[in-house]
Design a protein that fits this description.
Number of helices of chain A: 11
CATH architecture of chain A: Orthogonal Bundle
Shape of chain A: globular
Largest interface: A-B, 29 and 38 residues
Strand order of the largest sheet of chain A: 1-4
Oligomer: heterodimer
Helix content of chain A: over 70%
CATH class of chain A: Mainly Alpha
CATH architecture of the largest domain in chain B: 3-Layer(aba) Sandwich
CATH class of the largest domain in chain B: Alpha Beta
Structural class of chain A: mainly alpha
Largest sheet of chain A: 2 strands, antiparallel
Distance between the termini of chain B: 46 Å
Number of strands of chain A: 4
Strand content of chain B: 15-25%
CATH topology of chain A: ABC transporter involved in vitamin B12 uptake, BtuC
Shape of chain B: globular
Largest sheet of chain B: 6 strands, mixed
Radius of gyration of chain A: 19 Å
């Protein structure tokens, strides 16, 4: 039953990618920028959970809430200080700034870590309730651990909630309006800045949750924890069609499954190559992604 | 319809270099611009644009192509920041305000090229216009309403249906805005602008692409909007039949400058206007 086990692992990893990709795709859809510092918010989230539990000995639920609040504030602050002054700047300037913010966050954490002479940390594994699910019996049984189960359930709940939020609430409609035509939305009395702030807040809160699950998956981590999942989630967002929320979910999950399948059936060391190869394929044959819309050039 | 489009009100001089209908004389003007101007590089796109619009006036902004009419609309809504001059909307200056804030102060517009949120439904387009009139501003209240029954959302839907029924469009509420026929898209843009509760509504070429019977219906609708909501309407239009029939005051722009102001009859016979449209007599 290796195939089934690999599929479950892929779904779990894919759910994490989907959570991160949601942040990428929402920010891109509304602010029309690629926030390459998004991955590092995951890292900050993981570190804050680690610190709260290991050093401050706080209960897990409190640690998670603190991480979510901290990442949300961080996301809003980064947007306000780094990106808002560049609202009318060329996209390349914003992109370079985002990369700069990414390295800034990594190096701040590295600097703090050096004070304690430690650069690699072990993520606490006792955060989520220790449950596991056994499917099948005897030699064919596969065991799904708590981290996998929680990742999957939480991601599913967040996706449903986010879809409802975007479609059913006033703020959600404002976000879609800004995403479609920022200037017209402003002419209808919607503050684009405020909408962008909310987008960054939601994306960063999701990144904190992703930090919890990704930390629980890799266990050993350092200040570059967010780089790889950040880039892969970006690939997932492009894969699904950047700017599209269902696309990010689909892209994330497909990418997670492809990565785990490649690890299992091709080679562990080639898994990343397969993942990024998929990006090249998608960009060649379907440049707008699986669920992306055709971009109509404005006349 | 109780007011015939052909019954022309008298324009009277207002204590500035402008006119206003007798009806609006005792009320403060809804819009006043003073020596408004904007330069694009070295070009004076609009210069010394001073007008005054009464509370319930229907006014027209006309002029040859490239005269700067749409630029004036962009200035009035703060999409462009004026290089010179001042805009007073309902007695307050719009200088330094954001586009969204100026909309809240009481100005809304439609576009020459339709700019609906075409991936959203008809009713959602109207609800976007209702954004600032609905409670539940904060993210937190949006989330608490997420799974429960949202009263504000229901109210917004009812208001949107009300507004749509003004144009008899309530049955199209759940249709995709982008899939509506052209005329309905134009009407929906007006409904969306009205939803923001403006004191003055700017219509940029509302009759563009319409046949004579559609244009006639539009004229009736513009008068009906003014009479129902008691707001001012300013329109840019090339259809002279429409302009001369429903506008009470007309302002003619040429090369960014006001060349004439007055009633339709004044404008029709103004030699400068005839020259701007047809060229100089040789």
């Amino acid at each position: 039953m290796t195939f089934l086990a690999t599929l479950v692992n892929g779904l779990s990893l894919g759910s994490i990618y989907a959570l991160i990709a949601l942040g990428y795709t929402m920010v891109y859809g509304i602010a029309k920028m690629l926030n390459f510092a998004h991955g590092d918010i995951i890292m900050i989230g993981a570190f804050s959970i680690f610190t709260c539990i290991t050093s401050l000995k706080l209960p897990a639920i409190l640690a998670i809430l603190i991480a979510i609040v901290l990442c949300t504030i961080l996301g809003i602050t980064i947007e306000f200080l780094a990106y808002r002054p560049l609202r009318k700047a060329p996209p390349l300037a914003v992109l370079i700034t985002a990369i700069g913010v990414s390295y800034f966050l990594q190096n701040i954490v590295l600097l703090i870590n050096k004070l304690s002479n430690k650069t690699t940390f072990v993520f606490p594994t006792n955060i989520l309730p220790d449950i596991s699910l056994k499917i099948g019996s005897g030699d064919n049984a596969i065991i799904i651990n708590g981290n996998t189960i929680f990742t999957f359930i939480v991601t599913a709940v967040i996706m449903v909630a986010l879809t409802l939020f975007i479609n059913k609430t006033k703020m959600g409609k404002a976000m879609r309006a800004v995403s479609e035509d920022k200037e017209t939305a402003e002419l209808m009395g919607i503050s684009a800045n405020r909408t962008i702030t909310v987008t960054f807040a939601i994306g960063s809160a999701l990144a904190a949750v992703a930090g919890l699950f990704y930390g629980g998956t890799v266990i050993s981590f350092n200040h570059t924890l967010g780089s790889m999942p950040g880039i892969k989630a970006f690939v997932a967002a492009v894969f699904g069609g950047i700017g599209s929320i269902p696309g990010a979910m689909l892209g994330g999950i497909i990418l997670g499954i492809i990565e785990k399948m490649a690890e299992q059936y091709i080679s562990t060391s080639l898994a990343n190559a397969v993942v990024f190869g998929m990006l090249i394929l998608v960009l060649t044959f379907k440049p707008t992604g699986l669920l992306g819309k055709k971009i109509n050039e404005k006349v | 319809m109780n007011k015939s489009p052909n019954k022309k009100p008298k324009l009277v001089p207002y204590p500035s270099n402008s006119f206003v209908t007798e009806r609006d004389l005792d009320k403060p003007p809804v819009l006043e611009t003073v020596h408004l101007g904007i330069d694009f590089g070295g070009l004076n796109a609009v210069d010394d644009f001073s007008i005054l619009v009464g509370r319930t006036e229907i006014s027209g902004l006309i002029g040859p192509n490239g005269a700067g009419k749409t630029t004036v609309f962009n200035l009035l809504t703060n999409v462009y920041q004026p290089t010179r001059g001042n805009i007073m909307l309902d007695g307050y200056s719009t200088a330094g305000k954001t586009v969204a804030q100026v909309n809240k102060m009481g100005i809304a517009r439609t576009f020459q090229n339709i700019r609906l949120f075409s991936n959203m439904s008809v009713i959602e387009n109207v609800m976007v216009g209702l954004h600032n009139r609905m409670p539940g501003e904060s993210l937190l209240s949006s989330i608490t309403h997420l799974f429960g029954f949202s009263k504000a959302e229901k109210e917004a839907r009812e208001m949107a249906i009300d507004l749509l029924s003004f144009f008899n469009m309530q049955d199209l509420a759940s249709a995709n805005a982008g899939s509506l026929p052209y005329g309905a898209q134009r009407r929906l843009e007006i409904v969306r602008a009205l939803a923001t509760n403006p004191k003055i509504l700017l219509l940029d070429e509302p009759a563009a692409g319409m046949n004579p019977s559609e244009t006639h219906e539009l004229m009736e609708n513009i008068l009906r909007i003014r009479d129902t909501y008691n707001i001012a309407i300013m329109l840019i239009e090339h259809d002279m039949n429409l302009v001369m029939n429903i506008c009470e005051g007309i302002c003619v722009l040429d090369h960014g400058k006001v060349i004439a102001k007055g009633t339709p009859d004044d404008i029709r016979n103004d030699p400068k206007v005839i020259e701007a449209y047809l060229g100089k007599k040789r």
